[in-house]
User: What shape does this take?
Amino acid sequence: MQRIILHIDLDSFYASLEELRHEDIRGKPVVICVFSGRSEDSGTVSTANYKARELGIKSGMPISLAKRLAKDKDVAFLQNDIEYYRTVSDRIMEIIEEEADIFQQVSIDEAYLDVTKKSMDKWDNAKKIAEKIKKKIKEQEGLTCSVGIGPNKLVAKMASKHQKPNGLTIIKDAEVKEFFENLPVSKIHGIGEKTTKILDELGIKTAKELASSDIKILEKKFGKNKSKLLLDKSQGIDDSPVEQKDRQQISRLGTLKEDTDNIEVIFEKIKELATDMKKKIEKVSFRTVSIITIDTALKTQTRSETVQVTNNLDSVLPITKSLLENFLKENSEKKLRRVGIRVSNLVYKKEQKTIGDF
DNA sequence: CGACGTGTAAC
DNA sequence: CCTTTTACACGTCG
Assistant: This one.
């Protein structure tokens, strides 16, 4: 069955919203920051608008480095305000959902739509739907977005990335082959740094080379499942459905004021994170609670315990403390930089058919 | 198989 | 110097 899928990506979403509410920064390079609170400029860049990207500022980069790149230039650095962004995102997602047969929000600024029925199998109708969505978001929220249209989620995603900001790219099934052929593997969505490096060591640089590579050799490095996935991806093949999934886990991470192995200090932080998390888990219960530790070498480790289903976070705090105690005992040479708490194995109240539901 | 821990990837 | 949150796959162990 031939599908028509849209991927919608709001253009430098956080920065655009800040430009809308602060006229004094409009047209300037804008950098949205997540400050960790350790020292003056510790933290990372969450979003840089296109003017800031021209200066070499990119998301994920340390704020201190971004400030060096911005030296002597008129660049606006702002603290992020996720609550506000989420409010606007919710309004926009409502606009988008109206136009879809099936809707899947994948992050605060991205969504997939299956519009096979609404477009009556016609690419041209799908394009009209995309234009309508772009127009509505522009009129109602003053924002632009980039839209990709393709026969599946992978291609739609790659299409939306192809031209931005304010882009609209259609890659019909007949055009998929040509689009992928000469693409470096690192440009394929889902192929990151590690996979690219291993492929490079195998002499595989482009999607075409990956597509025609020996699966036996891939399987030695990646295993059967991932190899199949890689071969599919290299040809723009993706059968995954557009579907809204329930969240599988909820977590909170925080940075400690200073590196420490003091259990009381660390546990205080966990309690603080737990308090923030309570609001998020009002409507769900969970069976597993974990602590997440990140040491001074930035190595992440987790410890978890599965218990009777509960929705009372306070009741499992003693468990997180003993997990933490054991971890510190086993890793007495380590100090922690960051800690986190996570609940998983979520159980939703409303009877919804879930995979593990039989 | 379920529980647990790690690694990869994306935002 | 190096944020946040989530998904998913895989290996291991009992």
